[in-house]
Amino acid sequence: MEGLTLTKEQLDILLAAAREEGKKSVRVMRGNQAITNSPTREDLPPVEANLKDKTGMVIDRYIVTLLKAGFVAEAGAIGNLYNKLVRHNLISIPEQPFLPYVGPEPEPELAGAGAKRK
Questions:
Q1: How many angstroms separate the CA atoms of 99 and 89, rounded?
Q2: What is the count of structural domains for the chain?
């Protein structure tokens, strides 16, 4: 197989195309460099998120933060998203949620493997 031979003009065109391609940015999908393009509001309390927090915990805590600050409508909008994500098993409610539980009493855990349910 013989080597490829380029003229100086062809090489210049190839290098210029490579430089242009290098200028195109690759979209970062997560982390500090990611840009979501979602709307934001400076008048809302900041979102608290620690590195070990799971998504459900961050959302649950932020809804409570918004409610305490009087942003009921905003908390409701995020609550709509939270409920949908939980129902579709995309995130889960934290084991120790900040939002109070309102609903039927959870059934007590069964005492043992052979215990019968009422």
A1: 19
A2: 1
Asked whether residue 52 is assigned to any structural domain, the reply reads yes
Q: Which residues make Cβ contacts (< 8 Å) with residue 86, sequence separation at least 6?
A: 56, 92, 93
The answer to whether 66 and 43 have CB atoms below 8 angstroms apart is: no
Domain containing 72: what range? 8-87
- pTM exceeds cut of 0.90: no
H/E run at residue 12: helix 8-23
Report CA-CA distances (Å) from 61 to 24, 41, 42, 53: 38, 18, 18, 10
How far is Cα 109 from Cα 80, in angstroms, rounded to an integer? 30
pLDDT tens for each residue of 19-63:
777 666 677 888 988 888 888 999 999 999 999 999 999 999 999
Residue 3, token pair as written in the block: 């080597």
Confirm if 63 and 77 have CB atoms less than 8 A apart.
no
